[in-house]
Amino acid sequence: MGSARWDPTDWSAYAASTTGKSTEAVFAARGIDPALNPFGVAIRESRDSAANPESTAIIVGLDVTGSMGMIADVLARQGLGTMVEEILARKPVSDPHILCMGIGDVLCDSAPLQVTQFEADIRIARQLEKIWLEKGGGGNSCESYTLPWYFAAMHTAIDCFEKRGKKGYLFTVGDEEPPMDLPGTAMTRFLGDPPQRDLSSRELLMMASRMYHVFHIIVEEGSYARSDPRGVRNRWTDLLGQRVIGLSDHTKLAEVIVSAIEVNEGRDRDQVVKSWSKSTGLVVQRAVGGLAASRGKNTGVVRF
Q1: Which of 24, 95, 127, 176 could form a disulfide bond with 116, CB atoms 3.0-4.6 angstroms apart?
Q2: Counting Cβ atoms within 10 Å, is residue 19 exposed (0-12), middle (13-18) or buried (19+)?
Q3: 217 three-state secondary structure
Q4: Which among 106, 129, 107, 108 has a CA at the least distance from the CA of 36?
Q5: CA 200 to CA 211: how far, in whole Å?
Q6: pTM for this predicted structure
């Protein structure tokens, strides 16, 4: 997928169509859409095309439990346009192909993972709004943020890596801690994969990091992150090192993702911060202040 090219006019028309609508009206699904159900999906592909000859796979996984639906809402209304258009203008990577995921809890939810196709045009917005905001989750202090890592490692094929040895990007976004492991039963139940043992979060990180630069964005406005900000940050940092990003204003998610990609690709942090408006720059500075450029980013070796 991802054979078309982004058209700002299409985006403007789409964004205007959401004006005045509630979150529930934009995200009208009351169950998982069959097109987004990962069960039985062999592969999601990001392939080069005439319109996108050097595609770059970018996955954005959004926590849709509890009150986290605000993240999907702001991405659908304004963030996708900002993210794609700024990447195309700034060119930290070439020809972005975006895949969005909805993330829940494998222990509590009916749909702990929802997955769009990789798209390069307005179709990604139309698929994003099909995500079911299940608003579930449980009382176990974490959501299944590593399920997207498993899906990315085992169920995606991306030309940026296969043809050019260049990793894609994988961002998960939410306010809770990482889980300790992913039950093997969950991989079978929700993806249809053959029965296997539980996989630790560190194992899953290694698997996903072969093809992707993996980041987690902590939504600091979320209730769980507000209740235990140090604990959430420390647990993520223990797992991901510097690739843990604090998001102090959820309306700036797109700008933070673009900035993280820029810095990871070697651009000067201070210059990246200054490239935004003052208010946005403050959010970006807080988010990427500890981030350094990736070393050996095309070797397939995990480095933090």
Answers
A1: 127
A2: exposed
A3: strand
A4: 129
A5: 18
A6: 0.95
Q: How many Cα atoms within 13 Å fall on the side-chain side of residue 82?
A: 17
Residue type present at position 55: S
Contact 43, 157 (CB under 8 A): yes
Question: What's the pLDDT score for residue 296?
Answer: 55
34 with 93: CB under 8 angstroms?
Answer: no
Can you tell me whether residue 65 is helix, strand or coil? coil
User: Percent of the chain beyond pLDDT 90?
Assistant: 91
Contact 205, 240 (CB under 8 A): yes
By the 10 Å C-beta count (0-12 exposed, 13-18 middle, 19+ buried), 147 is classed as buried
The pLDDT of residue 263: 98
* Pairwise CA distance, residues 216 & 174, whole Å: 8
Contacts of 124 (CB under 8 A, 6+ apart): 80, 98, 99, 100, 116, 117
Where do the domains of the chain lie, and which CATH numbers do they carry? Answer: 8-248 (3.40.50.410)
Across the strands, what pairs with 246? 218
